[in-house]
Amino acid sequence: MAERRLSASAALAEALREEMTRDETIFILGEDLVSHSGIFGQFKGIPENFPGRIIDAPISETCVAGCGVGAGLTGMRPLVDFHFSDFVTCAMDELCNQAAKIRYMFGGQVKLPLVVWCPDGAGLRAAAQHSQSLEAWFVHTPGLKVVVPSEPADVKGLIKSSLRDDDPVMFFQHKRLFAKEGPVPEDADFIIPLGQAAIKRPGADLTFLTYGSGYHLCLQAAEELAAQDILAEIVDLRTLKPLDMETVAHSIQNTNRAVVVHEACVTGGFGAELAARIQVELFDYLDAPVLRVGAKDVPIPFSPVLEDYVLPSVAEVIEAARAVTYR
Amino acid sequence: MAIEIIVPKLGLTMEEAVLVSWSFAPGDKVAKDQTVLVLETDKVSYELPSPGDGLLHPLVAPGATVKVSQVVGYLAGDQAELATLRAEPPAAETDKAQPAAAALDSRASKDRRTPSPASADLAPKRIKASPLARAMAAKEGLDLASIVGSGPAGRIVKADILRALAGVQPAVATAGAGADSPTLTPTQEIPITGIRKAIFQNMHHSLSSQAQLTLHTEASAANLVRLRRKLNQRQGKDATKVSFNALIVKAAALALRLHPLINASVEGEALKVWRQINIGVAMDLGNGLVVPKLRHPDQKGVRAISQEILVLAERAQAKKLTLADLAGGTFTVTNLGAWDIDYFTPIVNSPESAILGVGRIVEKMVPVNGQGVAEPRLSLSLTIDHRVIDGAPGAAFLKTVKEFIEEPLLMLE
After folding, report:
1. Which of A55, A188, A233, B401 is a good FRET partner for A309, with 20 to 30 A between their CA atoms?
2. How many CB pairs under 8 A join A and B?
């Protein structure tokens, strides 16, 4: 099959159209969606093709999330749009106290299919309240699944799995990656199961464990490291919960060194969880401490100069790679 | 009141020693003057006589480095006192004392009678290695202590294990230093401790405190070679062979008798000319050198001197030299002939005032009645402390040595 390239936004829209065609219980709820097909154009073609199944909600994330939980409980498969992932704070009770726990508190008698679609990440000069990467909060909440794709094909494959899943899924898609193109299978049944990482670049000297925008930092770093004869393997985790520890372990058993790269700030980030599990489960395979590369521990600045300084850079990734390989 | 077991000062320069072993298990009864522990300094091993009677309560584990005057254990008067000591070690002791004693107790319970040997796992220096390097070393049966780490702070990493398995030295280029980088990177770092530290300090002290001058001459060794051959032919196979070193030591000793000012040391504001002649013989240990002393070689036969040198060499290799073996030197002979050296400038073994460097014996053509004749020749280098020995008296001494070597019969005088 000829390779077809799509942007991440187009891949998302295509997947949604395919799934909404396949399953009429799927609908989209959010703020200001219909007139613009989503503020990033991410729902292109849906208002025209699926009238009534993409719904504008009042400006209240509490309402959006609450409606999603109720609809999911009563037999629908809602996707709720959060505009900016930062706004999840307005819906934390619905997401963390209700959605995450309902199946458990009802003893498994109900299921809650719900996709919470959250555009996240920095680099758009959007300042502290519109630039965060908050995935670790939800990894820390039992009952939620957490997906963070990096490439258009992953967006398509993972959003389809998320829509078909019977549990609530937090789906974080980086705003700066919407326009980034990549090969995307045309196949309407193309699925990437949740909890399946991908080794996207093989290498023998160290493993980059990454996801979302971190993947693209690692890709560039790996290119530059290869010129220095340091061969980095890139594991794109894709799903943080459930975590594909098997692929992580397999890679580290081969390379003996790991660097975790994510855009979220380092302290309390998902890298901490990974590093902890690696040292327990793979101690005897480690030839160096597991290093983490992430944003500095400050609110994302509005100043472009400062924002670039705070966010993780390719240079920092390379530096960490050289440190763990002692080169 | 419990009796303290204290590390004695075994030499002027001694500051620390390794406590090699305890001769008794914790709680055992020790009588005064029985050997209670064995110390090893950079030069000697020493069996410490017990300072009194009592029940042993060690504070320091075998293998530990201890300081002069450190209290390393106690002798308790009775079981009650022993129990008190075990319960709360005296405040003066280091915080390491209790775990060390506990380690000893657990060993002793396994084998009450055998003193614990020096043990690597109680050695103070921790080897840094990555978990993978440790696992690999364990699997391959490699001793991490023998591997030089190239990682941060000397951490042994996978690459070092692979190099060790391949029998290769660590690569010179490490972090931050490419092949063309001017930054120097060590392949290993050897701490200056123990015997190396002693040599370090003694050599520097010697050259910085004395005014050293070296004189060279060459002697015919024809008669010396002939004499040695005859001496060694006269006795059966079992007799100790007479060595060139012994003959040269004898010649030097007798020359010292004729030149007593060479056999002297500066002490304070005076030059002390020694009654005794004790000649040190420098011995290479591979990782350092020691200079055990021969007592009164001027009064001994060359076969006895040869035997003494052999015994001292064996003890030196086994690190069994005693303090007495190393003390009281008045002059030193050092021989580099085995390495094809002719002349060199030996450094005086301070506070002595002179040292004789002996080169190789090599055949050379010498003119005899206008004809070239092949003759074994021996090169000699004498370093003197010019503060106390002027050039001429030094040269006169060296000339006497040369005469004795060229005509050993002169030594009968």
Report:
1. A233
2. 31
Q: What is the C-alpha end-to-end distance of chain A, expressed in Å?
A: 42
Of B115-124, B281-290, B294-303, which range is least confident? B115-124
A246: helix, strand or coil: helix
Q: Residue B386 catalytic?
A: yes
ipTM of the complex: 0.76
Closest CA to A113 of A123, A124, A102: A102
Residue A121 is predicted with a pLDDT of 96
User: What is the Rg, in whole angstroms, of the alpha carbon atoms belonging to chain A?
Assistant: 19
Q: Which of B132, B135, B174 sits opposite A326 (nearest CB)?
A: B174
The single residue listed with the structure tokens 């393997």 is A233
- Chain A positions in Cβ-Cβ contact with residue B157 (cut-off 8 Å): 287-288, 326
Q: Which of A234-248, B115-129, B155-169, B245-259 has the lowest mean pLDDT?
A: B115-129
Tokens representing B203?
């050599």
The span from the CA of A91 to the CA of A27, in Å, is 19
Instruction: For residue B111, report the phi and psi dihedrals to the nearest 5 degrees.
Output: -145, 90
> The sheet that has B65-67: what strands, in order across it?
B45-49, B35-40, B16-22, B65-67
DSSP alpha helices (H): ranges in B3-124? 79-87, 97-110
Q: Which of B132, B150, B152 sits opposite A285 (nearest CB)?
A: B132
pLDDT at B124 over 60: no
Backbone angles phi, psi at A199, to 5 degrees: -85, 105
Distance in angstroms (rounded) separating the CA atoms of residues A81 and A31:
7
Question: Is there a contact between B131 and A285 if contact means CB atoms under 8 Å apart?
Answer: yes
Helix (H, G, I), strand (E, B) or coil at B357: strand
pLDDT at residue A201 greater than cutoff 60? yes
Whose CA is closest to A251, among A210, A193, A221? A210
Question: What does R_g of chain B's alpha carbons equal in angstroms?
Answer: 27
Rounded (10°) angle between helices A245-255 and A270-281: 60
Residues B127, B134: Cα–Cα separation, whole Å: 10
B310 — contact with chain A (CB < 8 Å)?
no
Q: Which of A283, A288, A326 sits opposite B150 (nearest CB)?
A: A326
Residue of A230, A256, A278, A326 to mutate, interface with B, max B Cβ within 10 Å: A326
- Location of structure tokens 């990782």: B287
Rounded to 5°, the CA angle A13-A19-A20 comes to 85
Range name among A308-312, B173-177, B189-193 with the lowest pLDDT average: B173-177
**Type and span of the H or E element at B355:** strand B354-368
Look at residues A59, A79, A82 and name the one whose alpha carbon lies nearest to residue A69.
A79
Q: What is the DSSP letter of A228?
A: T
> Is residue A317 within 8 Å of A217, Cβ to Cβ?
yes
B296 CB neighbour count, 10 Å cutoff? 12
Q: What confidence tens digit (pLDDT) does each residue in A140-197 have?
A: 999 999 999 999 999 999 999 999 999 999 999 999 999 999 999 999 999 999 999 9
**pLDDT at residue A272 greater than cutoff 90:** yes
Those residues with Cβ within 8 angstroms of residue A195's Cβ, 6 or more apart along the chain or in another chain = A239, A242, A243, A244
Residue with tokens 């308790």, as numbered in its chain: B76
Q: Mean pLDDT over residues B237-260, rounded? A: 92
- State the Cα–Cα distance between residues A80 and A163, nearest whole angstrom: 11
Identify the helix (H) or strand (E) that includes residue B258.
helix B244-258
**Euclidean distance between CA atoms B413 and B409, whole angstroms:** 8
In angstroms, the separation between the Cα of residue A233 and the nearest Cα of chain B is 18
What integer pLDDT is reported at residue B361 of this predicted model? 95
- Cα–Cα–Cα angle for A316, A322, A326, rounded to 5 degrees: 145
- The pLDDT value recorded for residue B179 is 57
Amino acid at A68: G
Minimal C-alpha gap between A248 and chain B (Å): 17
pLDDT at A198: 98
What is the distance in angstroms between the Cα of A285 and the nearest Cα belonging to chain B?
5
